[in-house]
From TrEMBL:
GO terms for cellular component: endomembrane system. It is an enzyme of class 2 (transferase). It catalyses: a 1-acyl-sn-glycero-3-phosphate + an acyl-CoA = a 1,2-diacyl-sn-glycero-3-phosphate + CoA. Residues 343-369 are annotated as: Disordered. It comes from the Eukaryota. Pathway: Lipid metabolism; Phospholipid metabolism; CDP-diacylglycerol biosynthesis; CDP-diacylglycerol from sn-glycerol 3-phosphate: step 2/3. The chain crosses the membrane at residues 6-35, 290-314, 320-340. Its EC number is 2.3.1.51. It holds the Pfam family Acyltransf_C. Belongs to the 1-acyl-sn-glycerol-3-phosphate acyltransferase family. This is 1-acylglycerol-3-phosphate O-acyltransferase. It comes from Salvia splendens. GO terms for molecular function: 1-acylglycerol-3-phosphate O-acyltransferase activity. Residues 97-193 form the Phospholipid/glycerol acyltransferase domain.
Length: 369
């Protein structure tokens, strides 16, 4: 049974994230109305910087609050294209990239956010979730003239990895003659194919990321993050040229499936060696997120004191009741978010073997996309 973070932790963090998010979204809305009609490019550049003020809070949660250690394994050339500059800190990334990744834990998307922050493209990073994949073609068209390098992350397994989902995927693979997975789920390739089809002309690379948890580290979860519990995450990153991918949709789909077969073998090796090999790169722990969160904290505390002073919130039972109810609502919403973020509560896999073989099983698999 997972123990939820205590209220003394949840309440201030919940209020902090909620109010800062409200401020950032308000600024974005104003910029959308006033600046975007005049200059789409200027709006995007401003929006990138403003969005980063919010996403840096999540980076702070990983880097400084919980102290999660992310170890990156990739070759030197890929590391440079990500934006290597100086001894530890990364500079602006050098290229647009489509990132595909296995979905191992609750915080895989946060690991991607941390790597994007190191590469200097946190404010222009996007992650496609299951519910938003239906709008993917429309969104991809809008990225064609994006003024800064961006990363688009796809979790093509469509759901987080659990043993129950692995058993379902293994049954499905056995019934359809596919390679039987051991450490990953079977990728659902519609979103990947759509991305490659629309982005081939202006995105030069695919970053193939593989996430693994070393044997001596507990699995990172959102609950552990809020409790300030550290973990270690290994990330292997391999760069593929978009121009090397097959041109037909069917072949691109098969390329993605083959990539996950290779990813499965890589994870087998990681289980044996407890590492991804020799090419470990130092991504450091920049203080930028700490400075931003500290600044947010000072701003919000001063603002709260001013509001309390102006409206005399604690001078009457009505003000005290209103404050207590507001804190309660924000806390409950945060608890719900934490609960639904857990792997065991994610959407169950619906793949299953079919008595009629591949032709009748395939539609059930594709519905998960």
């Amino acid at each position: 049974m997972t123990i939820a973070p205590p209220a003394i932790v949840i309440v201030p963090l919940a209020v902090f994230f909620f109010i800062s998010g409200l401020i950032v979204n308000s600024i974005q809305a104003v910029c959308f109305v006033l600046i975007r009609p005049l200059s789409k490019s200027t709006y995007r550049m401003i929006n990138k910087e403003v969005a980063e003020l919010l996403w840096l809070e999540l980076v702070w949660l990983v880097d400084w609050w919980a102290g999660v250690k992310i170890e990156l394994y990739t070759d030197s050339e890929t590391f440079k294209l990500m934006g290597k500059a100086g001894e530890h800190i990364l500079d602006l990334c050098k290229e647009h990239a489509l990132l595909i990744c296995n979905h191992k834990s609750d915080i895989d998307w946060l690991v991607g956010w941390v790597l994007a922050q190191r590469a200097g493209c946190l404010g222009s990073s996007l992650a496609v979730m299951k519910k938003s994949s239906k709008f993917l073609p429309v969104g991809l068209q809008q990225l064609r003239d994006f003024p800064r390098p961006f990363w688009l992350a796809l979790f093509v397994e469509g759901t987080r990895f659990t043993q129950a989902k692995l058993l379902a995927a293994q049954d499905y693979a056995s019934s359809t003659g596919l390679p039987v997975p051991r450490n990953v789920l079977i990728p659902r390739t519609k979103g990947f194919v759509a991305s490659v089809s629309h982005m081939r002309s202006f995105v030069p690379a695919i970053y193939d990321a593989t996430i693994a948890i070393p044997r001596n580290s507990p699995t990172p979860t959102i609950v552990r993050l809020f409790r300030g519990k550290s973990s270690v995450v290994h990330v292997h990153l391999k760069r593929h040229l978009m121009s090397d991918l097959p041109t037909t949709n069917e072949d691109a789909s098969q390329w993605c499936k083959d990539a996950f077969v290779a990813k499965d073998a890589l994870l087998d090796r990681h289980i044996t060696e407890n590492s991804f090999g020799e090419h470990r790169q130092d991504i450091g722990r920049p203080v930028k997120s700490l400075l931003v969160v500290t600044s947010w904290g000072i701003l919000l505390i001063l603002g709260a004191l001013k509001i309390v002073q102006c409206f005399s919130l604690f001078s009457s039972w009505k003000g005290i009741t209103f404050s207590a109810i507001s804190l309660g609502v924000v806390t409950v919403l945060m608890q719900v978010l934490i609960q639904f973020s857990q792997s065991e509560r994610s959407t169950p896999a619906k793949v299953a073997p079919s008595a009629n073989g591949k032709s009748s099983s395939q539609p059930r698999q594709e519905k998960q996309q």
